[in-house]
């Protein structure tokens, strides 16, 4: 019998157990429950989400590059499956974008960053990531709306207004540049 008292072969039950374990900080147990759920049903969404969250958490906490990359590599197929099953998944979009950005693969980061903006417009990673990519590519018209949103939500970063002013100045919009 399972912890919930029902059929221990229920993928959904194991997925819910994985979520409960993760929410209480029991990552090892959450990972084990998620993997059990996925053995029973490879498309169990709660389990996919929990497993992705645990692996990403491990990767982002890891200092050693090899171990970080190992966790990310393990998370990637889980994130892709979750993205396929649940296209509006914040976890999938943020995880895929974060891994691509960390690895310097800007082309792979754009689509998940745009998806992240659609599913969670208040998450600053999407605005920061896209602004950075567009600035690096000197695509200032594309960077400007990203920077304006960042300025609206992050009043403490002094670099954002400087970048906005610079873009407006380059466009000859001196009054707006002066404002920033």
Structure description:
The chain has 180 residues and is mostly helical. The protein is 76% helix and 0% strand. It contains 10 helices and no strands. It has helices spanning 11-23, 27-40, 45-61, 65-85, 90-102, 106-119, 124-136, 140-153, 159-170, 174-179. α1 (11-23) runs parallel beside α3. The chain is elongated. 36% of the residues are buried. The model is unreliable at 1-6 (pLDDT under 50).
Write the layout of secondary structure elements.
Elements: H1 11-23, H2 27-40, H3 45-61, H4 65-85, H5 90-102, H6 106-119, H7 124-136, H8 140-153, H9 159-170, H10 174-179
Put the structure in a nutshell:
Helix content is 76%, strand content 0%.
Beta-strand percentage range: under 5%
Globally, the shape reads elongated
Distance between the termini: 63 Å
Number of helices: 10
The percentage helix is over 70%
Rounded Rg: 20 Å
Low-confidence stretches: 1-6
By helix and strand content, what is the structural category?
mainly alpha
Largest β sheet strand count, sense and barrel closure: none
Total beta-strand segments: 0
Mean pLDDT: 93
Order of helices and strands: HHHHHHHHHH
Question: What tags apply to this protein structure?
Answer:
mainly alpha; 180 residues; elongated
